[in-house]
Amino acid sequence: MATEAEVIFFDAIGRNDVAVVGGKNASLGEMVCALDAEGIRVPPGFATTANAYRRFLSENGLDSVLRAKLAEFAEGRATLHDTGEAIRTAIVAGRWPADTERAIREAYRALSDQSGGGAISVAVRSSATAEDLPDASFAGQQETFLNVVGEDDLLTACRKCYASLFTDRAISYREAKGFDHLKVALSVGVQLMVRSDLGGSGVMFSIDTETGFDKIVLIDAVWGLGENIVQGTVTPDEYQVYKPFLDRPNLRPIIEKRLGAKEKKMIYAQAGSPSPVRNVPTSKAERAAFVLTDEEVLDLARMATKIEAHYGVPMDIEWAKDGLSGALFIVQARPETVQSQSDVGKLQQFSVGAHGKTLITGLSVGEKVASGPVCLIESPEDIDRFVDGAVLVTSNTDPDWVPIMKRASAIVTDHGGRTSHAAIVSRELGVPAIVGCGTATYVLHDQQEVTVDCAQGDQGFVYEGSAEVQVKDLDLTTLPETRTKVMLLLANPATAARWWRLPADGIGLARMEFVVANTIRVHPMALLQFDRVTDEAARKEIELITSGYPDKSTYFVERLATGLARLAAVAYPNPMILRTSDFKTNEYADLLGGAVFEPVEDNPMIGWRGASRYYDPAYIDGFRLECRAIKQLREVIGFDNVRVMIPFCRTPEEADLVLKVMAEEGLTRGQDGLEIYVMCEVPSNVILAEEFAKRFDGFSIGSNDLTQLTLGIDRDSDKLAPLFNDRHPAVEWMIRTVIEKAHATDTTVGLCGQAPSNYPEFAQVLVDAGIDSISVVPDSFVSVKTNVAYAEKEARNPK
Questions:
Q1: 156, 184 contact by CB (below 8 A)
Q2: Per residue in 224-257, pLDDT tens?
Q3: Please, what are the domains in the chain?
Q4: Are 683 and 703 in contact, with CB atoms under 8 Å apart?
Q5: Which of 10, 35, 80, 660 has the fewest Cβ atoms within 10 Å of its own Cβ atom?
Q6: Distance (Å, rounded) from C-alpha 605 to C-alpha 599?
Q7: d(CA 748, CA 760)
Q8: Single pTM value for the model
């Protein structure tokens, strides 16, 4: 425990010293003392104490000034702006008590000597004694000053830190949270600067900031000093790491790498400049390159997990990379204050029905939907014209914007990532936000009615007009147990983490083609045989999106593997059954560069699709890329819970050909625990079930295609739609028969489809037939689980 001295070095401070040195400095001291042996590198430094702050106020007669000015504000006799400005001016003009000034100067000299001598560059950070509490984040409330050199400039920066305790946003925030202004003191942290101006910096969370998924480390990174990323004035690179695999040195559990624009970087200014730091545009090479290597990403993620384990709560952490030494440092750590406080047993689900055209997209923050008129504000000077309940549209926010952010129905910004100021504050306020849109302030205009949709996963959408919105509250604590496994149908990696709270038994069908169409966007053969792509626009786009990869096929394998990893992470350690690509030829042709590789078929639904493509010379090399991505997913990233499923496999002989290609790519059934399933969607799968069971570990009934081919109805035909019935006796016979034959050979069998949710009596049919699992879309999980439990009860207690 630190003493009430004027200045204390970090190595004499611990986490219990918030009242002495504030939350930020207490946390730095805790890490220096307790986590250095764990490899957590924190730059050395010292802190002024709360006692020093109170003495400064007292000896300058400022206590009475603060009381008077705050009373005028509370009584409505002064504006927030005038109150804050008067208090700050008075504090900056104050004089240091002689012994306090001497203690700061001596500590700076000692830190300089410890760091090699001479006047060193330091970061001067504010640390309030009420900040970073478990239920309140003071993110960005007080000021930070970077590249401060020399004793006199340090003393000036410390006074400015004191003054920043009374910025407009800090006063407003304490009012909202019920903190007594005069009971909050400020400590100043003085820390050796990391030369991240020559390297990079960023923010990371040991929890998914949007969904609360606790097995993820989220890392954002930019070039240069970290203030730009905190303020949200640049769009950072984003990485996601799966925490449970970090202790396995043979794995590389990075499940997302997203390149950000990184439009500018903050560096040291030249000597004699008005400010010690300045922003400069990044080069084309910097914008096209990731800030961190894979090893650095994993190193940071391991630090995050160690810090989280030590504190026992999810953490919000700032880091910096020294451009001279290449070392990674932790410069701040505080508890995460939003998702860690949420109720894991409750799930509120927003969905959008009919809506206007999409005006702009960006990174979504939160999972809500809101409508309202646009209030476009490009300068803090115009904040006063904000209209309550409007959608705030601006370039980026900083703490000055907080008073109006909490009055907004939604927030949209041009710049920023998921750890920017706009994102952090919006999340805490429960206000949906879309950040990093690029041109929101150009596309949207004042008083335009819009809907802000953050319910679609990582990507947020701004629609024209007011959309139809449905809100459903789900209570997961009352769900019954069932013998029959109830699993999920998932395809979109961006939305997968939303469903981690559902007590599902795994993912019964993960559709690879969704990842190919939405994440990769290029036909695999166009990457392998790029010279055959003659469409000039397609060639340019393919060149652009594959830049930075050693060859174009590597782009396909890595992007597919990481996209699928985000799905597998939600299921682990329960199984994820991954269906290999099941595009029809017309759908393949729509991919970039795809038209030249695909025939034109009259009926693609029963044409060259599924298994028939995988051994065909015209596509076999594309299928080999799929296999390599699966191998990387299982063996490099680490998701050995992934099982593979082959779609539209018409005959046992065709199965043999596909399994041979897979084995050639290192995916052999039974090796390293690999299980391979077959979709049961062709009548021959039922008729010859015993033969298919010799080749596969399980069946998954695709009820849509099985109905189509049993009743002879094109499921895309509007004319025949009334005849399409997946509960028809003929279809039910097929389902019962394949379950009976599969179980006779000790082979598992499940079903994928909506019918058990839409029709409770169909769940009874499946349970009576002994189905092993049922897979449904997440929206239907609660109702299906309930229906299955009722059906199992009826089966045990027939009337």
A1: no
A2: 999 888 888 899 999 999 999 999 999 999 999 9
A3: 7-192 (3.30.1490.20), 200-341 (3.30.470.20), 346-473 (3.50.30.10), 479-796 (3.20.20.60)
A4: no
A5: 660
A6: 13
A7: 23
A8: 0.85
Instruction: Kindly indicate the confidence band of residue 3, based on its pLDDT and cuts at 50, 70 and 90.
Output: very low
Residue 466 has, within 13 A of its CA and on its CB side, a CA count of: 7
What would the two tokens of residue 231 be? 């303020």
SS3 content of the chain, % helix, strand, coil (to 5): 45, 20, 35
End-to-end CA distance of the chain: 70
SS3 label, residue 333: strand
Torsional sign, CA 94, 99, 104, 108 = positive
Q: How far apart are alpha carbons 742 and 736 in whole angstroms?
A: 10
Is residue 421 annotated as a catalytic residue, yes or no?
A: yes
Question: Which residue of the set 161, 454, 680, 752 is catalytic?
Answer: 752
pLDDT at 339 over 80: no
Tokens, residue 124: 């001067």
Q: Are 436 and 360 in contact (CB under 8 A)?
A: no
Residues facing 364 on adjacent strands: 434
Mean pLDDT, to the nearest integer, of 418-438? 84
For the question of residue 161 being annotated catalytic, the response is no
Rounded CA separation 118/109 (Å) = 8
d(C-alpha 390, C-alpha 395), whole Å: 16
**Tens-place pLDDT, residues 179-192:** 788 888 899 999 99
Catalytic, out of 181, 355, 415, 421: 421
